[in-house]
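Exercise 3.2. Students should predict the tertiary structure of the chain below and write it as structure tokens, then compare their answer with the key that follows.

Predict this chain's 3D structure.
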Amino acid sequence: MARASAADYSQCHMPTRRPSFALLLVALGAASAMACEPAVELPAGAVAAAAPADETAPEPAPALSAGDAFLKRATEEVIEFLAAGADIVMPGPVEVLLLTSEQATERRRRYAESLGDEVGYTAAMDSMADLMFSGNLLGRYFPDEEAVYVFEDAVFGRGAAAGSRDDERALETLFPVLAHEMVHAYDHMVYGVVPAPDDFDTLLADPAELPHIQALMSLLEGRATYASELACHAAGRRPLRARSVQEVLDSDFLKGDGSLGGGALARAGNMLIKLKLVQYAYGRTFAKRVHDFGGEAFFHEVFEHLPLGMDELEDFTLFLVRWAETKEAEMDG
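Answer key:
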């Protein structure tokens, strides 16, 4: 999720040279699945819309949880075919919630308020993700809650009443999304490598670490993307579309509303979306090479030999050489 041209490389890795911009990129989270369609309208007032709800917000409607028959079925199928297709066996249960965007925002607001000193990072991350991907976000895994959110509006269509839901069609949308998020949950539970919001003050303290953070985020997204594809193939379902690096760089995902502010916001949003989707593209290629080389078991070796360099992410052979040299040194020692 083959190295591109030098110009592509410089565009893809701007975060390694701009710590403040990298913070925005990291704030989008390493644990989300998106379906970005070109030219989504982004009104100039979108920033205000992304702000947390005020204290007088009403209680959200009860969320559908893993006890709901549809979500329970989807979760069980995903767990089954992640094991069958990708050799990923979940070590324990994961909370899965089917929420409207409003319910998700309210739940995260209340959760952030309970964190005390960490609320700033959590609220900033959630607001950034809501702003950039509110219309296209399909699911997110939150390591601080150890919960997967999948978004009812994206799965069933906005405003779909429960009685008119087409569960079979919705499952085609939900399956690859939930598989993606479950891989993030697995990597958090088994390897402890998915950053939580309160990790970022430490992770971003040293600008020299930014390339490693970018590589880790790319690895996590690419691995989840490719494993989700394997699960879909095993289940006979259609995976989410995988874009190449060049496709990402050539695309515009947001457009402004014609105003000066709306245009600037759309340009900034497009840059962030491209940086995020480039993670998926480079990381997916690396993940496929890992899987082809040694299956799921070799991901253990990858995570045992972090940090990963961006050059290694783009060329699996470089990682393989470093890994082999490390193993040889361990044996000689």
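Discussion points: The longest strand covers residues 137-142. Confidence is low (pLDDT under 50) at residues 1-30, 34-67.
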